[in-house]
Amino acid sequence: MSPASTMDTTLPSSNSALFNIPKLAEDGTNWITYKERMLTAIGARGLMRYADGRAKKPVPFAVDPTTGQATKADGTAPTQTEIDEQDEKIDEFYQKDSLV
Fold first, then answer.
1. 67 and 36, same structural domain?
2. Is residue 7 scored above 90 in pLDDT?
3. Interval 31-49: pLDDT, tens
4. pLDDT tens digits, residue range 59-89?
5. Which helix (H) or strand (E) holds 87?
6. At the top level of its lineage, which domain of life is listed (predicted)?
7. Which end of the chain is least crowded, N or C, by CB within 10 Å?
8. How far apart, in Å, are the Cα atoms of 94 and each of 17, 23, 52?
9. What's the total number of domains in the chain?
């Protein structure tokens, strides 16, 4: 087998052997190596909370059904800046969650 078929996954921005994640064998014989390398790579990138479920998805503002306007939990209307910031937090959550 060539190295490309045994080391299929390399996470971006790293040349370290620790970040070369072996392709998981169909029979699972390399599960321990695969798991440890995957967790090392995830942890090194600060994404462990996404893997273990501690990362919480930001909650979008509620929409008032009568007016169609976004509202905060206290019933007030958020500013456009607050809406944009919340949207960015939600986008960032999905980007990082997808990496894991």
1. no
2. no
3. 999 999 999 999 999 999 9
4. 999 998 998 899 998 989 999 999 999 999 9
5. helix 80-99
6. Eukaryota
7. N
8. 27, 25, 15
9. 2
Kindly tell me the sign of the dihedral angle through the C-alpha atoms of 33, 7, 40, 43. Answer: negative
- Is the residue at 51 inside a domain? no
**Are residues 38 and 71 located together in one domain of the fold?**
no
The domain in which residue 33 lies consists of: 1-45
pTM of the model: 0.69
Nearest partner of 61 among 90, 97, 92, 95, judged by Cα: 90
- Contact 100/42 with Cβ under 8 angstroms? yes
Output the six-digit token pair for 47: 């994404």
User: What tokens were used for 97?
Assistant: 């969650």
- Distance, CA of 33 to CA of 21 (rounded, Å): 8
For residue 98, the surrounding DSSP H or E stretch is helix 80-99
